[in-house]
């Protein structure tokens, strides 16, 4: 995936391996990709040291992320619905992060721009 950022999912997910619910983290590529840790409600940084993906100023962007391992048992790579998350960004602020249940699989691009 190269350089990326991380964002915490606001709602707990239950691990299909150990059955423990916890707050998971997703890696994504949009904004300054300097391995910045974000939470919902934070504004993306565009001042970068290493690299930048995308461009600021879009009204609405959906970025696809990959879920990291279970915070309890460390298991990962469950396949299917357990691989991806969708990060919604409005006016450069992360407004939501959810597990991707669309069934669309991996996107061809790391993010999609939706103008007003």
Topology of this structure?
Elements: E1 5-8, E2 13-14, E3 21-22, E4 25-28, E5 31-32, E6 37-38, E7 52-53, E8 60-67, E9 84-90, E10 93-99, E11 111-114
Number of helices: 0
Q: Ends: how far apart?
A: 29 Å
Helix content: under 10%
Mean pLDDT, nearest integer?
Answer: 90
The unreliable regions are none
Work out the strand percent. 35-45%
Total domains: 1
Shape: globular
- Major sheet characteristics: 7 strands, mixed
GO molecular function, one term: translation elongation factor activity
Keywords: Elongation factor, Protein biosynthesis
Protein name: RNA polymerase subunit RPABC4/transcription elongation factor Spt4
Can you walk through the features of this model?
The mean pLDDT is 90. The protein has 116 residues and is mainly β. It contains no helices and eleven strands. It comes from Nonomuraea muscovyensis. This is RNA polymerase subunit RPABC4/transcription elongation factor Spt4.
């Amino acid at each position: 995936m190269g350089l990326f950022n991380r964002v915490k999912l606001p709602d707990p997910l239950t691990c299909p391996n150990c059955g423990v619910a916890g707050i998971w983290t997703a890696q994504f590529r949009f904004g300054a990709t300097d391995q910045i840790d974000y939470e919902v409600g934070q504004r993306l940084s565009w001042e970068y040291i290493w690299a930048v993906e995308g461009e600021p100023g879009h009204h609405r962007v959906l970025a696809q992320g990959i879920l990291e391992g279970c915070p309890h048992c460390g298991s990962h790579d469950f396949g299917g619905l357990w691989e991806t998350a969708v990060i919604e960004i409005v006016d450069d602020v992360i407004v939501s992060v959810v597990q991707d249940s669309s069934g669309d699989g991996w996107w061809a691009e790391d993010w999609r721009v939706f103008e007003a």
